[in-house]
């Protein structure tokens, strides 16, 4: 191994450290590496014997991760992936017990402290919130953003995590936020597999980090393969650090520092990470540490074998250059340890892992056993032969699961249909109570649901002076943002063209000059990095408004939005939150690439975000006022053709609040309830005037939000009067309109109020061609609304409304 001296390693800072102290540190590191390896091997066995569902492990990366952990300080951040178990053990953010508890999917958050049984193994997270949803002190703990499985997905959020350090360092008005930073001296440590550097989000984020000079150290674990695909197929020159040489900073230019080190060379790894961490912490220079010559002894996961695609020569090389074995050889050759001593240490490690594995399994089994014992007792008390089969099935279970328990209980309930007895009532009561418990185990915390939830904020009406100003809608937004930026120093806004020109529609016009480039600034064209920046900033206590210029472009950021932000609260069981506001504009724009209404995609992919669709800029401003005082993420879609429409300027433009998830009746009517949102509302309003001439009265409901939808059930109330329902929007057929129908007909029991077929009017399946004529023949027009509403009335009373066609 390398003979590099380690006097700059953080564990060895004392110049006169004794050999015994030095030796103790080294042996402790080796023991941890052995424990982690044994955990990987045992974890695979637990999967293959059926006690766990699936496994991915970090074997082969132990020594590099131990060296990395040495430079990680309280307040620092990890944004990693599912090979980081040794790193997590070394940091203390997980343990062998927690590792196996997660492998077994224990739904108890004290057992699986990262996700409460919701994530597969080796997906780590630290708790950032107390039970009330208040922030914990991040400067006193080692922090880890919740892992996601998405390949390379951990890259995007490092932008915000690192940018937060720059803002805390340079904006003295943030000094009061002592829970989140020590004047910006934190470093973000990101890990990624070498094959994942082929993903676009890697390049997008690395470029952005180099431009902004983000304090991040990115470790590339290079074991030569991406599952079965070798580096030669993955990467130009088969070497990511070679490819990145153009990013190397030179003279006074921005850029990155690049290090290359072998993954089995413990002393060199310690020195490299000390140097990289110093660059990032003291100079805010992003660093890449390309860790080569790593192995993956068990292959990619428990679903396959690496012997299928690795040559005999490669497998032999991996046996020789296994990092744990290389460190063991170095310990013996350097005289730090003796053979018998290492054997004793290795036996202790094996015994410890086995004990913790058994403890984790026993605790998981106890969780299941409570439900199993209660179910057996209740079924036994019924004493009816109809329940004999489910009862005996439960009594014979060798390895119970909650699925087996409740499947048999539900079978018994079905078999007992029509039979009444106190014992059955007891079973039904127990089952109802357990349904609540199982909801908490597997379904709760889609949103943070704290006292600061936007759903708990009451609406505050907009006020208008007697001599109210009539202005462009964009001016209402501009005044709203100005007031909020003055009120709360934590708020920052960024996106393409947001800074200097104040966004393409002038919502932030002039605000960069007022509040400075640290708070309102431009970004490059990189949607994934923009959203990642928002997530990271929000995780660190700031209040970001991340702008995506047009709604269509949101698709480029969907993996980050869906896989990271939308499920963050759920997958951490409410222990992390990122109250990002994504601002964009869409609806009614002409052209295939700017059609602006992919609502189906958003509703399907963004469960966990509030989706707000204001009809004008006043409503949008009220929603921003609510969301900026709340702690859950949201998407606000402004009407693109509404910025220059005239609106009244509220006197309380930065204080009035539009409640989230509350629909609004904007026109009283008697014949048909029409539900719409956004720009299409104006089409419906124009049609209502035409329909009045034909003797038809529309009642118009503005949904305002699609997620959540109409919490006060105004639609139901309207249907009690009209008994007819038409949903109009410009999404594709079967999209958002179908979603709204289900919410009204099923969720609000609106079906029972109808006296005719509910109808939808949507855009055509094709994207809109360019030009006003293309818009007319593709999206709902006034004529379309008039004719469909008339048809509905004709079907109801043809004598009063004879057919048009």
Written account of the structure:
This protein has 805 residues and is an alpha/beta fold. The protein is 41% helix and 11% strand. It starts with 18 loop residues before the first helix and ends in a 9-residue tail after the last helix. α1 crosses α3 (85-91), α12 packs antiparallel against α13 (388-395) and α18 runs parallel beside α19 (558-566). The longest helix has 44 residues, at 339-382. The strands form 5 sheets. A 7-stranded mixed sheet has the order 11-10-12-13-15-14-20, with helices on both faces. Strands 2-1-3-4-8-7 form a 6-stranded parallel sheet, with helices on both faces. Strands 17-19-18-21-22 form a 5-stranded mixed sheet, with helices on both faces.
Which features does this protein show?
single chain; 805 residues; alpha/beta; Rossmann fold; 4 domains; seven-stranded mixed β-sheet; six-stranded parallel β-sheet; 27 helices; 22 strands; 11% strand; globular
């Amino acid at each position: 191994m390398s003979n590099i001296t380690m006097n700059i390693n953080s564990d060895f800072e004392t110049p006169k450290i004794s050999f015994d102290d030095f030796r103790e540190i080294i042996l402790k590191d080796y023991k941890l590496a052995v424990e982690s390896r044994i955990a990987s091997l045992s974890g695979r066995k637990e999967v293959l014997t059926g006690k766990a569902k699936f496994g991915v492990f970090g074997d082969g990366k132990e020594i590099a991760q131990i060296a990395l952990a040495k430079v990680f300080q309280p307040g620092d951040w990890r944004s990693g992936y599912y090979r980081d178990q040794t790193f997590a053990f070394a940091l203390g953010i997980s343990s062998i017990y927690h590792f196996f508890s997660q492998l077994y999917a224990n739904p108890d958050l004290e057992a699986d402290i990262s996700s409460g049984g919701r994530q597969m193994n080796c997906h780590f997270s630290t708790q950032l919130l107390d039970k009330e949803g208040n922030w914990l002190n991040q400067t006193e703990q080692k922090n880890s953003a919740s892992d996601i499985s998405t390949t390379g997905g951990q890259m995007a959020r490092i932008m915000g995590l690192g940018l937060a350090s720059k803002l805390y360092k340079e904006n003295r008005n943030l000094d009061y936020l002592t829970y989140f930073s020590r004047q910006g001296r934190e470093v973000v440590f990101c890990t990624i597999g070498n094959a994942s550097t082929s993903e676009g989000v890697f390049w997008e984020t690395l470029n952005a980090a180099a431009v902004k000079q983000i304090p991040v150290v990115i470790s590339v674990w290079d074991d030569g393969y991406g599952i079965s695909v070798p580096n030669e197929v993955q990467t130009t020159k088969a070497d990511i650090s070679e490819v990145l040489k153009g990013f190397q900073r030179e003279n006074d230019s921005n850029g990155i520092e690049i290090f290359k080190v072998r993954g089995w060379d413990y002393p060199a790894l310690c020195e490299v990470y000390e140097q990289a961490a110093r660059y990032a912490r003291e100079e805010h220079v992003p660093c890449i540490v390309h860790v080569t010559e790593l192995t993956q002894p068990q292959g990619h996961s428990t679903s396959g074998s690496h012997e299928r695609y690795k040559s005999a020569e490669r497998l032999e090389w991996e046996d020789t250059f296994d990092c744990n074995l290389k460190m063991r050889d170095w310990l013996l050759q350097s005289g730090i340890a003796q053979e018998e001593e290492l054997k004793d240490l290795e036996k202790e490690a094996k015994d410890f892992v086995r004990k913790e594995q058994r403890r984790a399994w026993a605790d998981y089994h106890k969780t299941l056993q409570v439900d199993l014992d209660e179910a057996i007792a209740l079924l036994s008390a019924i004493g009816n032969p109809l329940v004999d089969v489910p009862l005996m099935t439960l009594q014979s279970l060798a390895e119970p699961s909650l699925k087996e328990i409740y499947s048999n209980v539900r079978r018994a309930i079905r078999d007992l249909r029509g039979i009444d007895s106190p014992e059955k009532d007891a079973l039904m009561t127990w089952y109802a109570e357990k349904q609540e418990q199982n909801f908490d185990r597997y379904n709760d915390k889609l949103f943070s649901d704290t006292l600061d939830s936007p759903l708990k904020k009451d609406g505050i009406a907009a006020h208008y002076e007697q001599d109210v100003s009539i202005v462009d809608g964009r001016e209402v937004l501009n005044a709203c943002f100005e007031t909020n930026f003055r009120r709360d120093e934590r708020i920052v806004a960024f996106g393409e063209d947001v800074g200097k020109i104040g966004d393409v529609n002038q919502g932030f016009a002039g605000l960069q000059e007022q509040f400075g480039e640290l708070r309102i600034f431009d970004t490059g064209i990189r949607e994934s990095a923009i959203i990642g920046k928002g997530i990271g900033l929000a995780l660190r206590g700031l209040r970001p408004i991340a702008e995506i210029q047009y709604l269509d472009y949101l698709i480029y950021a969907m993996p980050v939005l869906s896989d990271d932000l939308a499920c963050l609260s759920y997958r951490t069981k409410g222990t992390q939150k990122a109250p990002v506001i994504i601002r964009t504009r869409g609806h009614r724009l002409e052209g295939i690439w700017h059609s602006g209404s992919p609502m189906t995609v958003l509703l399907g992919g963004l469960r966990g975000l509030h989706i707000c669709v204001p009809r004008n800029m006043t409503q949008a401003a009220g929603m921003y006022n609510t969301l900026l005082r709340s702690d859950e993420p949201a998407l606000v879609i402004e009407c693109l053709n509404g910025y220059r429409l005239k609106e009244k300027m509220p006197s309380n433009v930065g204080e009035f609040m539009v409640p989230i998830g509350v629909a609004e009746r904007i026109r009283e009517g008697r014949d048909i309830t029409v539900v719409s949102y956004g720009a299409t509302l104006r089409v419906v309003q124009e049609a209502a005037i035409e329909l009045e001439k034909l003797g038809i009265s529309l009642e118009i409901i503005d949904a305002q939000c699609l997620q959540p939808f109409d919490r006060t059930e105004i639609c139901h109330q309207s249907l009690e009067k009209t008994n007819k329902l038409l949903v109009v929007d410009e999404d594709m057929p079967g999209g958002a309109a179908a979603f709204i129908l289900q919410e009204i007909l099923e969720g609000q029991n609106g079906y029972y109020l109808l006296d005719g077929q509910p109808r939808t009017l949507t855009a055509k399946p094709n994207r809109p061609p360019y030009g006003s004529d293309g818009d007319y023949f593709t999206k709902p027009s006034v004529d379309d609304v008039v004719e469909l509403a008339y048809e509905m009335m004709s079907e109801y009373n043809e004598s009063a409304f004879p057919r048009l066609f």
